[in-house]
Design brief:
Elements (H helix, E strand, L loop, with lengths): L9 E4 L2 E4 L4 E3 L2 E8 L4 E7 L4 E4 L15 H15 L1
Antiparallel strand pairs: 1-2, 2-4, 3-4, 4-5, 5-6
């Protein structure tokens, strides 16, 4: 039976639009394609046990892991990590 691809579900958090239906696990973190309001496509990574986040820069390389600072970053981590617990 052919599998029907899930509909892409975008969720907005601050300047980011996250492809919520496309989270993948990489090295113990959840990674999703994300659009920044400046038009750039980036990847966003969230490490639930450490409650930190990371993103790719303009060159496509990962930056440093950071603690959430903005409200939208806390909300993003909470929404994702709570949904992945089950």
């Amino acid at each position: 039976s052919a599998s029907i691809p899930a509909k892409t579900q975008w969720r907005s958090y601050g300047p980011l639009k996250v492809d919520w239906s496309n989270w993948k696990v990489m090295n113990g973190s959840h990674v999703a394609p994300t659009l920044h309001e400046n038009g750039r496509s980036i990847y966003l990574a969230i490490n639930c046990p450490l409650r930190r986040l990371n993103a790719t820069g303009a060159d496509g390389a990962w930056k440093d892991w950071i603690y959430p600072a903005d409200k939208f970053e806390y909300k993003l981590i909470n929404d994702l990590c709570n949904s992945k617990k089950s």
